[in-house]
Amino acid sequence: xxxxxxxxxxxxxxxxxxxxxxxxxxxxxxxxxxxxxxxxxxxxxxxxxxxxxxxxxxxxxxxxxxxxxxxxxxxxxxxxxxxxxxxxxxxxxxxxxxxxxxxxxxxxxxxxxxxxxxxxxxxxxxxxxxxxxxxxxxxxxxxxxxxxxxxxxxxxxxxxxxxxxxxxxxxxxxxxxxxxxxxxxxxxxxxxxxxxxxxxxxxxxxxxxxxxxxxxxxxxxxxxxxxxxxxxxxxxxxxxxxxxxxxxxxxxxxxxxxxxxxxxxxxxxxxxxxxxxxxxxxxxxxxxxxxxxxxxxxxxxxxxxxxxxxxxxxxxxxxxxxxxxxxxxxxxxxxxxxxxxxxxxxxxxxxxxxxxxxxxxxxxxxxxxxxxxxxxxxxxxxxxxxxxxxxxxxxxxxxxxxxxxxxxxxxxxxxxxxxxxxxxxxxxxxxxxxxxxxxxxxxxxxxxxxxxxxxxxxxxxxxxxxxxxxxxxxxxxxxxxxxxxxxxxxxxxxxxxxxxxxxxxxxxxxxxx
Length: 513
Description:
This protein is α/β, with parallel strands linked by helices. The chain has 15 helices and 26 strands. The strands form six sheets. Strands 2-1-11-10-12-13-14-15-16 form a nine-stranded mixed beta sheet, with helices on both faces. Strands 4-3-5-6-7 form a five-stranded parallel beta sheet, with helices on both faces. The protein has a four-stranded antiparallel beta sheet with strand order 17-18-20-21, with no helix packed on it.
């Protein structure tokens, strides 16, 4: 079974149902499959064969999904390229994965040409409804080609190489098989209720495995797919209203931006019935407003990482309410995933004790491309993936992420989980956004430091913030220093980059706790 099989099934049994919407263009499942197979044959005419790696450097679009499926139908492997990377970083990915054909839309043709200066045999295939250019254009290949013969990959065959962000060194290419991607898609669709009646809006970047899994879950389910090139708050509101979107994947920071945009109005989003989010729990002030404005929307908090394809666990909508006893957790594992929390020696810890999350299941990576030593470090002999995330489980088995190891603050021998402190800070009426990090302290090892973005015209002093926090949490958890900023640094996927907030304080130190 594969995502190609899902495409064929919908083209056979739901041929006239709408598969893709982009602007004024709509394609039903039969036309979508026909275009994919013709593009696949066009790739074969260019010399693409089984196992070849093909890059995609483009914004979200209908053509992006067509390219992915065509690559698979030609027997090749997709390598989604990070649109925010430098030429050097993307050049590394091209060399590491041996890409010789690169799909690029009009936004990245200049970048594609720069990449060719380092690899002169790189073939550029332009994709776009208009403004496409390159050595050849996908629309030309579709029009000039017959349908490729039916091809069904084996579950163990390599389907995609997804590059990690490289926060701990050189980026690593995570290898996911067709079977792994199929299992993840089915698992996420089951857990979130994505079905053939849904209309999914794709605003999270498709090069990222989190954005990709939403698309793939909709592909196996036969949902209608609607594309936005990238997240823009007012455009998201307009798309949901006009296209009657039912479900979308979005980060808590984006939810806040959407609700603060002048175009936002609950009446415009009445078609929504599901909102998936990850990266962090939904801050309680935003959660409260969501529940008031959009009571019909089921909220699903998901947790995962690229190495797991990405599904690890999810928090069911019934636990998404202000004051929920499970609200700060990431729930329980997806049906296809096993999870345990272990100590430094790999032994399971008791419930309530902190340790590293290990996970395994049929949706996990095969390994890191060209990095057997790194693979051996990441996957145990009995198949567990070491996530590097620190957590504990309660008596019901719910997982509570205490942050990445460096995001957990140890002050005076006490563990402080930044998410807990941030949630308390965000209840203060002056605070719009908050990030808590550990900074060096000669007496306690680390001190709790708060970085805040305030609402327009608001003010706050450290003592007032500490008084506010001490009403709800222990004094050692309350911030000992405060910094006000206009914005917080965000990753390409919208997560707060705590390492950037922490780094200046740890410069010229031999250790960074």
